[in-house]
Amino acid sequence: MCAAPLCAGLGLKPQHFSQALACRRPGLWFEVHPENYLVEGGPRRAWLRTLRAEHPLSLHSVSLSLASEAPPDATRLAQLAALVRELEPALVSEHLAWSSWQGAYLPDLLPFPRTGTALRAIARNIDAVQSALGRPIAIENPSHYLRLDGHEWEEIDFLSELVRRTDCQLLLDVNNVAVSAHNLGTAPEAYLDRFPAHAVAEIHLAGHSPDPALGQALWIDSHDCAVAPATWALYQHLLARIGPRPTLIERDGNVPDFSELLQEQELTAICLRRPATENAKNPEVTACPAT
Amino acid sequence: MPGDLTAFQRAFTQALLADAPPMPGRSDAPAFAVQPGFAVYRNTVQSACIDALEANYPVLTALVGHEWLRSAAAEYARQQPPRDVRLMVYGEDFADFLGAADSAADLPYLPAVARLERLWREAHIAADAPALETDMLRAVPTEVLPTLALAPHPAARWHWFEQGPAYSLWQAHQGDAAEQRAADLAAIDWRPEGVLITRPHGQVRVAPASLATCAFLLACADAQPLPQALHAAQATDPQTFDGGALLAQLLSAGALRALPG
To answer: What is the ipTM of this complex?
Structure first.
């Protein structure tokens, strides 16, 4: 059973709006990027309000640029706070990354050396966001493509320290773990086994692809295909240890029919409902259940 | 080390936005920037900007083609990276950029179409507000009319395009049928056109507009009383001006804001 009312969720695409609105699967929820709805009025915001009246919602921010010396943009933070007040989302999250530099927006989730300076700056920024929103946010582990010099902290210790300092939650993206471990030559199971279970408010699952130029030497967190079998195995390995948590299927490119996404959502729900001992056996997750 | 995060962000941003990636072997290239994975960030940032411009200017893309648009968008993104995290509003100056671009010199209607699509986006995300309805206007006492100022609805946008038939070009690209589009384009009368964009019942509506309509709304936006606004409109077309028809058009389009109180 899912402990929380949220079970398996889907990243919401505008083209699936009608089907998403009408879908009545128990425990289903949806996640959107709030940046697409920080508008004064009009059909976008109305659309999200309509959806929220039928389903739990998660706001997954991509642009607060927490890993910066600069504080989050005050205007956008106030708009996000207004959106949170209006929609009362079940979850709010952001990434352990930065995306703004001196007023320019660099639309990606950029890396940084995990230093004491960075830790203080990020903790301060998380405090500012949580204070503005009046609620905790969950911080997501990033995908890594680079070996950076100057790390003073292991990522898991860094995230744990942020939780200790700010009472934030964590969003554990299992695909990011798989991609980072592949690209940096580390063991994904070891990362999952050390991840602070008590703080995990949400899990993400997505597909990845080999780099178009470098092939299998570099994996890209592309969100443009189904969740890989190895990622399902990592997910079950994680659930066997920490128990069920609200889990989201992300798909941003090559978006298939809603029904295809629902099949992945159902596979997720099966993993979430069965006992930890069953997940520990790591049964193959490939067959699409009858729905 | 104080300031190390800022120093890293500065160096990373410079390498990210540089015209070309740093060359491996250069002694001044940062260690992160010569790794193969750095291209992932350069590509993602550039693609996100170009994708956003293509999404924000769909008719422009249909007019010039996917490749031309993406090439122009790449140059625009290089010159003007986004300042707003809401990429749906990225490209505020894309019309001006196209107007100044050598590659668009023989396509003078492109900036006009870009400006229309920009106004469409502004109307789409503008604040909600009740629209002025005919009954509300009829209920205004006659003695108040000389001083009554009507305000444009927050989602109303209008523009007179001296450069050419921006509205007709836009309208011809609203259907999916290529044959119909070719016929519509062939039938376009190449002369100046105005456009009125409104959002009645939550949906954006694009309609042709006369110079008088544009002048009237401009006067309203300038808080001029109704008689002066009508006078400004009439001055654009003294021979055939019909104030009643103009007001009826604006009311049915939801172009005016409900009166306060």
So the answer is: 0.94
Contacts of B2 in chain A (CB under 8 A): 117
Instruction: Tell if the CB–CB gap between B85 and A73 is shorter than 8 Å.
Output: yes
Residue A268 maps to a domain? yes
Size of interface A-B (CB pairs under 8 A): 134
Angle between helix B211-221 and helix B226-235 axes, rounded to 10 deg:
150
Q: What are A128-135's contacts with CB under 8 Å, separation 24+?
A: A128/A71, A128/A72, A128/A77, A129/A64, A129/A66, A129/A72, A129/A77, A129/A94, A130/A166, A130/A167, A130/A168, A132/A77, A132/A78, A132/A80, A132/A81, A133/A80, A133/A81, A133/A84, A133/A92, A134/A81, A134/A84, A135/A84, A135/A92
Chain A neighbors of B1, CB-CB under 8 A: 115, 117
In a domain, A79, yes or no: yes
> Which CATH number does the domain housing residue A226 bear?
3.20.20.150
Per-residue model confidence as pLDDT tens digits over A7-37:
999 999 999 999 999 999 999 999 999 999 9
Find chain A residues with C-beta within 8 A of B87's C-beta: 35, 107
- Tens of pLDDT, residue by residue over B149-195, are 999 999 999 999 998 899 999 999 998 777 788 888 888 888 999 99
